[in-house]
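Box 3.1 — From sequence to structure: TetR/AcrR family transcriptional regulator
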Amino acid sequence: MTATTPARTRLSPDERREQLLELGVRMLADHSLEELSIDLLAEAAGISRGLLYHYFGGKQGFYEAVVQRAADDLYAQTAPPSEGEPLERLQASMEAYVDYVAANRAGYASLVRAAAGGNDALRAIYDTTFDALGTRFFEEDTQSLLIADTPANRALIRGWQAMTEELTLTWCDDPSVLSRDDLLRVIAGSLPAVLAILA
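Predicted structure (token representation):
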């Protein structure tokens, strides 16, 4: 009895591009953007470099597409639940955020570095996602915490987001500095405390 090679499924261009994006996002879990090369993805996907250039137009186009997909995933995965007390919803959202960053630490950290380092396209993706995560607190249709939408509160939310990001990345680098539970208590507990100062 001879083994047969499974027939390869021919994918449409959209399906192939989707497959490559999903693979790129998965690889960001263990690789920085700098490490995520066209060669590496082509080898992992079993396709030629030329095909990747065909779909993404080059390394920069590939980076941008993968980062945009990862940013979309982060936004979707950190959506607060629609039910529960405000602090419970905040806690659930922050747990999802910490878990996402921990699972994708290399890629997330390299995106933060790239955005800070002057890459305009990646900076735009980062800024748009950062803004969307903050705006979520003020939008009723996304089951936000319904914080009063004032310039002061928006500024406080941005500062709290920056602190949350830095604390989470620091914890990912060295989990001995805080337990996960303590990290989450600090993150979720600090926002109401900050907002209460100006209430």
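Summary of the box: The two ends are 77 Å apart (CA to CA).
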